[in-house]
Each structure stands twice: as C-alpha cells, then as structure tokens.
Design goal:
This protein has 485 residues and is α/β, with parallel strands linked by helices. It is 29% helix and 20% strand. The chain contains 13 helices and 19 strands. It has an 8-stranded parallel β-barrel, surrounded by 5 helices. Strands 1, 2, 4, 5, 6 and 7 form a 6-stranded mixed beta sheet that branches. α1 runs parallel beside α4 and α2 packs parallel to α4.
Length: 485
C-alpha cells in the first residue's frame, strides 16, 4: 500500500498506517486488548525502552500501533496529532531508532499488530504489515475497571508519555518522587484503599520498595507551603532574615508579624515575575544570636525562648510562609541548640539553618576569628533532624549551611547530603560589590558535594548595589533559596 500524506499541518512528514480488516473508523471490539495491571505499586524499570515497558503493562494485545520514526518525535505537529489519536483510540506509540528497533519489533509481535502507522522514516521494522494513515486508526475499546495511575518525569521519552496517556491516568513530575507535587499527592488519594494500580516509569524512581515507601509517605504526610512534600525543585523560596524585635539583625525584626508576612509576600511576588517555578515567601529567623559577651557558661550565644518565636512560626504557617530557624551557637554545639527547638522544628513548614561563622572554638571570640564547624558535627545534627522528620511523619525539611569562606565548613566533602528527609542548601553569604559576591560564589560552587542545592543572600546595606530579582536568578547555577538581610 502506498503511504498517504496527512494534511498540511504536518509538513513534509509521510504517514503510513496498516489496517486490519476494513478502515471504517469505528473501534474494534477490543475484547482483551487492554491489559488490567494488578492492583498495587510497582516500578517499571529495566533496560528496555520505557514505551515498550508501558505497552507491555497496558496492552494485552493491539491490532494497531503508531510508530515514530526519525524526526517525528521532534516535530510538535506530528507529536500532538499522534498523541491525540493515541488517547482517543487507545493504541500504543513506539519510537523506532537504531537502538530501539529490535525491542520494538518484539513488542509488535507480542501485541499481534497487523496494522501500523509510520510517522517519519522507520527503519529496522518488518515491512509485512499493512500501513494506513492516522485518520484510519480504529483503536481498542476503553478499559473496564479502575484506570491505572502512571507516574513519570517531565523529561520522559515522548513515545513513553504518549503510550501512558493512551491507556492510563498520567502524572508528570519534576523529579522521580511521588511526593514532589500537590497534583501527584492528590492523584494518589483515590487509590488509597489499594483498588487501583500505581506504576512509576523508569529506574530513576528507585526500587519498588523505595517507591512504595514514598507513596505511603505522600498519603500520610502534610504538604509544604506551595504544595508537595519535597522542598526543591517544586518551588523557590525568598526569605526575610533577622530576629523578632531586633532591627539591627535584619529586616525581619523591623516590623510586626503581619507586616513581616506581607513584606515577605511582596518579595516573593517580585521574584515570581522572573521565576518559572512557584516562589514561596519565607522567614529565616535567628533563633540563637551570637553575643560579644561570654554570658552564662561563657557560651557567647543568646538562645531565644522557643515560646517567644512560636507566634511568628505559627502565624507564618497559617499564611503559607516557610520558616527556617537559624542557629549562631557561639561555643555551644549546633545539635545541643537544635534540640531546644525540637517542638518548633516538628511543624511541617519549619527547617533548620546552621551558621558556622558564629560557631567558636573554646579559645575564640566573635568578630576576632571567623567560626567554623566540622563535618561530624553537621552530620550529627542532620541525623537528628532526619530522625525527627521520620518519627513525626513530616515532609522533607530545608537544611541550610551558611558559608562565605572555605574554612567555615571544614572537610565539606564529608558532609552527608543524601538523607531523604532533608534538602541540603549551601547558602552563599558573601556581600559587597558584584564582582566580590560572584568570586565568593565561584569558590563555593567549586567541588560542591552531590545532592546540594544553592542559596544566595542579598544585603540591603552592605551590597553595592543590591542585586535585583532578575540579576539574582541570572546567577548560575540559579539559587533556589534567597534571603535578604
């Protein structure tokens, strides 16, 4: 049969299909054509193309299939037309490249395909089947029973996404984690009783056991401000920095709680105009303040009563403002101070920041030496915080490490950055002229440990000039947590 060209909306692409029986445009009886994935949770992984894995999962058989040849998947018009037909007629879509041709051929034989659509140049596939154009696809009958839920990342192959949407509910995620968006969490609720199949597509989701654990967490854990239970990349944060009632320490302390919330919201709105990701307003509250005087026990730190901070933390939570508690421990241990704020940190919208500049050795004093902290102390603190997240069934927490000098985070490469309960941020605290700030930035991102996200601080008085939102987000890599002091 000679290939037929579809209309002018698909310029220069030859489309050939194969039809079994008469091309009436009516769906075939479809009895037994669509598979019924077993209820439960599973990761579809392995070395085969994702579209083949999905076709095997969703179709027991199909007389027809759509094949995307060279160039077709990259043409938006072809892709959209093929996707529309696949959804309406419930047929699989498989991309054919030199690497995938043999796997696709085996899948076509398993399905019993007798009719195929060829979009673009298709090589390496048997030519014995009949070919027709997209308008002639009859398709399979709709599924009876619960529709399976497929989770896949935004960057999944085009043919995999089209095959999934042809026969299932699909949620696309920014990262391979079912907790990452409010949409994904909402999609899991109807399946809470175990009546439907939940599948993750691709090995990046980890093992089935790991994915199942995260699905359970998604169903039982509160969401973060802005939705989802994973801090990044589903949102950016822009924070006011300071301490309540202490205007000299930063803009957070220069107005009352409602005015601070409104100021943080205005900052976030300024960034939203230049950010592709949602921007969440935030507070970074200095909970323990470095002191020039030794004080009781010669600790050189003042710990604010948690009850003094509670109204700020709780009002922020009600307003959708994320809170990070910042520690300046003097001669105390970070973990010892963090424990005092455990009740506040047990709230789902509260994270923790360590400021090593103000972590003194026994013979040091503030403003004479720059403080520092070793990896072991950081790891003990993060292990305790991760355990709090697990035991209280909390969403992932922000864990911020302030830095502007290499010595502040001694042996940074030994810091544990892969705790699933925490999102680690190295926060660049350099100030001054733009070239000085950027030099600090370049030092900090050099040999950055895997799993670390970057934060940035803008100073209203010490920076000359203060970076605009556009300039801040133009820094590379783009910072995800921005604070203002």
């Amino acid at each position: 049969m000679r290939a037929r060209v579809i209309g002018t909306s698909i310029v220069g692409v030859v489309v050939a299909l194969v039809v079994s029986a008469s091309a009436t445009g009516e769906p075939s009886d479809g009895v037994g054509a669509m598979a019924s994935p077993a209820p439960g949770i599973e990761v579809l992984g392995g070395g085969e193309p994702q579209s083949v894995l999905l076709s095997r999962e969703l179709y027991a058989r199909s007389d027809e299939a759509i094949l995307l040849g060279v160039g077709a998947a990259d043409d938006p018009a072809v892709r959209d037309h093929a996707g529309r037909v696949a959804r309406e007629r419930h047929v699989p879509v498989l991309a054919v490249t030199p690497r995938t041709a043999s796997e696709v051929s085996r899948e076509l034989r398993r399905l019993g395909v007798t009719t195929e659509v060829r979009l673009g140049r298709v090589d390496g596939i048997d030519d014995g089947r009949e070919t027709v154009d997209l308008a002639a696809v009859r398709g399979n009958a709709e599924r009876r029973g619960p529709e399976p839920l497929m989770m896949m990342t935004h960057d999944a192959p085009v043919d995999a996404a089209l095959t999934a949407r042809s026969a299932a509910r699909v949620v696309e995620l920014p990262v391979p984690d079912p907790r990452s968006t409010a949409e994904a969490i909402g999609a899991l609720d109807p399946a809470g009783a175990g009546s439907g199949a939940i599948r993750a597509v691709g090995p990046a989701f980890g093992s089935t056991a790991e994915f199942a654990r995260r699905v359970d967490q998604a169903r039982t854990t509160p969401e973060l401000p802005g939705g989802g239970q994973v801090v990044f990349p589903g949102r950016r944060m822009v924070a006011l920095y300071g301490s309540p009632g202490a205007p000299a320490l930063g803009p957070l302390g220069r107005q009352d709680i409602p005015a601070s919330i409104e100021r943080a919201r205005r900052l976030a709105a300024d960034y939203q105009r230049v950010s592709a990701e949602p921007v969440v307003p935030a507070f970074e509250i200095i909970a323990t303040v470095a002191s020039a005087e030794p004080g009781p026990g010669s600790t050189y730190t003042n710990m604010i009563d948690p009850e003094t901070l509670r109204p700020w933390v709780e009002a922020a939570g009600r307003a959708g403002v994320y809170v990070t508690l910042d520690l300046q421990p003097g001669r105390m241990d970070f973990l010892a101070q963090a424990r005092r704020y455990a009740d506040l940190l047990a709230q789902p919208h509260v994270g923790l920041a360590l400021d090593p500049e103000w972590r003194l050795k026994p013979d040091q004093v503030h403003l004479t030496q720059i403080g520092s902290v070793g990896a072991d102390e950081v790891n003990r603190t993060s292990a305790w915080l991760a355990d709090l997240v697990r035991s209280r069934h909390l969403p992932q927490k922000l864990f911020v490490l302030h830095q502007f000098d290499a010595g502040m985070l001694a042996d940074r490469g030994r810091i544990v950055t892969d705790r699933d309960e925490l999102q680690v941020v190295v926060h660049a605290d350099g100030h001054g002229a733009p070239d000085v700030k950027m030099e600090t930035w370049r030092r900090l991102i050099t040999d950055l440990p895997a799993g670390v996200w970057m934060g940035w601080k803008n100073f209203y008085t010490e920076d000359k000039p203060t970076f605009s939102p556009e300039t801040t987000l133009a820094v590379r890599p783009s910072p995800w947590f921005v604070s203002y002091q």
